[in-house]
Design a protein that fits this description.
Blueprint lengths: L4 E12 L2 E13 L4 E5 L6 H8 L7 E6 L2 E2 L7 E4 L11 H12 L4 H10 L15 H13 L5 E5 L7 H18 L2 E6 L2 H7 L2 E5 L6 E6 L14 H16 L2
Parallel strand pairs: 3-8, 3-9, 6-7, 7-8
Antiparallel strand pairs: 1-2, 1-4, 4-5, 9-10
Helix pairs in contact: 2-4, 4-5, 6-7
Bound molecules: adenosine-5'-diphosphate and magnesium ion.
Length: 250
């Protein structure tokens, strides 16, 4: 079967006042339908740049991105995105933030929203404003909003990077739980190797700038994965291997 998402020899550079920056260099990557891929690399290695290209938000300067076999010219309707900052609309309540993607695609269904809020543990906070929520709760709203359309592709850029360790662990389990329901294809950027291994079917590592793909690790840990496995022996073995390639490329 044709991969859902393909990057073919993608390079991109930015022109900045301080000089030109080659952000990513000759990146090729194929992501299968339903696959959960984690992208790990040092800060500045072009992870966000690559994710923006996969979302149709940025056109690659060289090479091309194919989604369902077609070049990606704009953000497709069937993708969901989540970022490190929850990027909620401050004047909208929890329920109205989550429902936003449904309004845009014209199939607003309150039952879906209520079920999603329950799934992320926000029942009872429907009418709260983002400013009234903790960081962890805001990130739950952001996750609910990214998933409400049942996207075929989910792009996540360090979504839990600003949360403390306990909360992050909790959100990891929640994400896996939600992912198991519909199994969208996921591209998850993180610099936490343990998080990458625990979540993903495959961990892709990137070199320091200009970002290139330097490693590809299939994580053969059975699912569903339990919380206790996060710090277990098998995760740790992969973490060491991934760490080693990153360390060598420094
Ligand atoms: P990462 O997400 O891995 O930290 P980014 O993709 O954000 O890396 O950035 C890769 C490189 O490209 C960095 O050196 C960054 O400063 C530069 N860069 C990213 N976006 C822009 C932009 N809009 N203009 C100029 N330089 C940029
Ligand atoms: Mg980034």
């Amino acid at each position: 079967m044709q991969p859902l998402l393909i990057a073919e020899n993608v390079s991109h550079h930015f022109r900045a006042p301080s000089g030109d920056v080659l952000a990513v260099r000759d990146i090729s990557l194929r992501v299968r339908e339903g696959e959960f891929v984690a992208l790990v690399g040092p800060s500045g290695s072009g992870k966000t740049t690559l994710l923006r290209m996969f979302g149709g938000l940025l056109q690659p300067e060289q090479g091309r991105i194919l989604y369902k076999g077609q070049p990606l010219m704009e953000p497709p309707a069937d993708i969901g995105m989540a970022f490190q900052k929850p990027t909620l609309l401050p004047w909208r309540s929890v329920v109205d933030n989550v429902r936003l993607p449904l309004e845009i695609t014209g199939r607003d269904d309150y039952a879906d929203v209520a079920a999603m809020l329950e799934a992320v543990g926000l029942t009872g906070f429907e009418e709260s404003l983002p400013a009234e929520l903790s960081g962890g709760m805001q990130q739950r709203v952001s996750l609910a909003r990214a998933l409400i359309n049942q996207p075929r592709l989910l792009l996540m850029d360090e979504p839990f990077g600003a949360l403390d360790m306990m909360l992050r662990s909790e959100m990891n389990l929640l994400l896996l739980n939600l992912w198991e329901r519909t199994r969208p294809t996921v591209l998850f950027v993180t610099h936490d190797i343990q998080e990458a291994v625990f979540l993903a079917d495959r961990v892709v590592t990137m070199s320091p700038r200009p970002g290139r793909v330097i490693g590809n690790f299939a994580v053969e840990i059975p699912r569903p994965r339990a919380e206790s496995e996060r710090y277990g022996q098998s995760v740790q073995e992969y973490v060491e291997r991934v760490w080693h390639t990153l360390e060598q490329a420094r």
